[in-house]
Amino acid sequence: MISITTALDWNWDTTWDVLPTLLSTFLKVTLLVTVLSTLIAALLGLVIAMTLRLAPKPIAVTVKWIANFIRMTPIVVQLLFAYYAFLSLDGITIGILIFGIHYSTYMSEVYRAGIDAVPQGQWEATTALSMSTRRTWTAVIIPQALRATIPALGNYAVSMFKDTPFLLVIGVVEMVNAGLIFGGNTYRYIEPLTLVGIIFLLASYPTSLLIGRLEKRLAFNT
Amino acid sequence: MIEFRDIEKSYGDHLVLHELNFSVAKGDRVTLIGPSGSGKTTILRLVMTLEEATDGYIFIDGQPLTHEERGGKRVARSKKDQKDIRKRIGMVFQQFNLFPNMSVLENIIEAPVHVLGQSKAEATTRAMELLEKVGLADKAEQHPTSLSGGQQQRVAIARALALDPEILLLDEVTSALDPEIVGEVLGILRNIAETTDITMLIVTHEMQFARDVSNRVLMFDGGKIVEEAPPSVMFSDPKHQRTKDFLHAVLGDAEGTIGTH
Amino acid sequence: MDEKLAALVEAMPRLLDGISVTVQLTVLGGLAAFALSVALGLAATHPSKAARIPARIIIEFFRGTSLVVQLFWLFYVMPLLGVDMHPLVVGVLALGLNYGAYGAEVVRGSINSVATGQWEATTALSMGSFQRMRRVIFPQAWALMIPSLNNLLIHLMKGTAIVSFITIADFTYHLDQLKRVTDTVFSYGVIGLLSYFVIALILTFIMNALERRAKRRLGQGITLKSVLSPAPATATPGGGA
């Protein structure tokens, strides 16, 4: 370890200087955006999935192509577009909205797969019991579909977390940007950028492991 | 030809085979019968090295297959040694397991060319003979998935024979087939049994086939051999109550026996 | 509107240059990622721990540390270690490493999804491990992995839009120039997003054709609808956008 840090010309003073800034942006920006965007994506994704299933065909097809369009174009360009188009909103707000919308298109696919996985017999049972569409969805289909989708939604939340540095294109000071600003001022890039990588790894890897375990447990219980 | 010595096989706490000892002579056609879960298929899989015994030894022509005793210890043989012996053994599976990324002909010549090092021309000539034998010469260029189950199994038989095995393992080869095409596959196997001296180890639920083809029948239950007899005796006059019950259940007739042809 | 069109016509050569850079990054990054995916994916399914453990560490490291961090680390820190690379090389390397790690999981999963009976048949035919992988298992796994690899390729293409921050004049960089002489909606919205969408559709079309070919080789049919559909055949959680 010592030899590696020497080769990298690692400076521990710089490390302690920059670490508090990075950790505070981690909490105030990176986590905040991840959590709020995940909520938006999870809700909007469900709305999209249900629209695709329930809405009249022309509407469903239109929504599908809009979702494809959002999913297949760069979040960086979407951020820039929204940032300049809605100048009254600040970068973080734009970031939360765009991340939420972008990832809702992925999450809608997860819900769709979950809804498709509910056995045909369940639908037939709701018909046999003359349940309303509303009850069918809220009491039978969604609860069953949701269970299987939780791990996949979690995985998308983790990948959204790792995508938050894209926010720097609209000037949001998230962790990478904070590191770059520190580097620009001090000409020390090794410590901040390496630390940012380590923080990402330390936060995302255990989360992924937990999601993997949850996935196994849910798979066993069904 | 094949010798099982003190074979034990367990999955976790579940003991599948217990103190199994028996030998198969060259040219023997041995059918293993018994209720499902009695360990019959496991025996074939052990011989094919698809699974390893928990304890004990298997010998092929006196040579240890996967493990040998050295200095009083049970040690695994080298992968290369295992592979050399394995080449003498062929297997036909319940689910055929043809390679879907290759044509029928390619399936058959794959091992002769890439394992035995035969020339493509040589392997193709032999493959066409085998396809002729199983009645599918006109399907050589087709995709396995375009064939019926019975046809796929016939290709799988040709594929196994292409390695010129001394031992052929048949693992419930008709269980995945529709009843009306079981006959065509069994007919081919009967023909192979009559025209070659390949040693065969057979797991099947087709008692008539077992009777026609094999010279020995072993009844398994609970991981042990409960009875052994020639088919004429086993199917008409079983000694053990377990055998009687089993034959009664699978044959469904009052005596639990089948007639001779 | 005429003014915008005039500005667009004037900016066209530079925009096309930018698209060319974006496509180059996508193709080269995609090839690098694919090579790494196969190498790491095979190592991760290898029976020997000596191959599996290093592969797992590399996969988790590059999946876990974020594309943007890797990009800037290679750009700012490597020169300090005496390794000076052209920014395009840095871009291709970061994209290749990050998406290669994701791809390795796809390759690993697909190899493990090939039916057990196929593995057993190769043993029954005494095939060696190399022959087994090259001639039987990989060709079948390949058909399984294409839809997920396509998703990753689209992610990678979207990921290229960040490279103007390491001084590469890609399509997004030139969109910013266009915005200065026109407006946001026209440059980023109409020209930018639509062009990226067309690129993504073309990539998907190519990958679907590859999948169709791979499945045909396995004797499986594939419908025209699935060829034309831009939606992912399977959701691949865990890919970066």
Automatic annotation (TrEMBL), chain A:
Q: Where in the cell is it found?
A: Cell membrane
Q: Which family does it belong to?
A: Belongs to the binding-protein-dependent transport system permease family.
Which keywords annotate this record?
Amino-acid transport, Cell membrane, Membrane, Transmembrane, Transmembrane helix, Transport
One GO term in the molecular function aspect is: transmembrane transporter activity
Provide a GO biological process annotation.
amino acid transport
Its protein name is: Amino acid ABC transporter permease
This chain's source organism reads Paeniglutamicibacter gangotriensis Lz1y
Looking up Gene3D superfamilies in the UniProt record yields: MetI-like
Q: Provide the membrane topology annotation.
A: Multi-pass membrane protein
TrEMBL record, chain B:
- Any idea which UniProt keywords this protein has? Amino-acid transport, ATP-binding, Cell membrane, Membrane, Nucleotide-binding, Transport
Stored SUPFAM superfamilies: P-loop containing nucleoside triphosphate hydrolases (SSF52540)
Annotated localization? Cell membrane
Annotated Gene Ontology cellular component terms? plasma membrane
Q: A Gene Ontology MF term for this entry?
A: ATP binding
Report the Gene3D superfamilies cross-referenced here. Answer: P-loop containing nucleotide triphosphate hydrolases (3.40.50.300)
**Entry annotated with the keyword ATP-binding:** yes
| Coiled-coil regions, chain positions | none
Topology term for the membrane: Peripheral membrane protein
- Mainly resides where? membrane
Domain ABC transporter stretches: 2-247
Please report which protein family the annotation says this sequence is part of. Belongs to the ABC transporter superfamily.
Name of this protein: Amino acid ABC transporter ATP-binding protein
Q: Which organism is it from?
A: Paeniglutamicibacter gangotriensis Lz1y
Automatic annotation (TrEMBL), chain C:
Q: Name one GO molecular function term.
A: transmembrane transporter activity
Gene3D superfamilies on file: MetI-like
The ABC transmembrane type-1 domain extends over: 19-207
Keywords for the protein's UniProt record, in alphabetical order: Amino-acid transport, Cell membrane, Membrane, Transmembrane, Transmembrane helix, Transport
InterPro entries for the chain: AA_ABC_transptr_permease_3TM, ArtM/GltK/GlnP/TcyL/YhdX-like, Ectoine_EhuC, MetI-like, MetI-like_sf
Q: Which GO terms describe its biological process?
A: amino acid transport
Q: Where in the cell is it found?
A: Cell membrane
- The transmembrane residues are 21-45, 57-79, 85-102, 141-166, 186-210
Q: How is the protein disposed in the membrane? A: Multi-pass membrane protein
In terms of Pfam families, this protein maps to:
BPD_transp_1 (PF00528)
What domain of life does the native source organism fall in?
Answer: Bacteria
Q: Write down the SUPFAM superfamilies for this protein, in alphabetical order.
A: MetI-like
Just give the chief location class.
membrane
Q: Which GO terms describe its cellular component?
A: ATP-binding cassette (ABC) transporter complex
Family as reported in the entry's similarity comment:
Belongs to the binding-protein-dependent transport system permease family.
| Stated name of the protein | Amino acid ABC transporter permease
Q: Which organism is it from?
A: Paeniglutamicibacter gangotriensis Lz1y
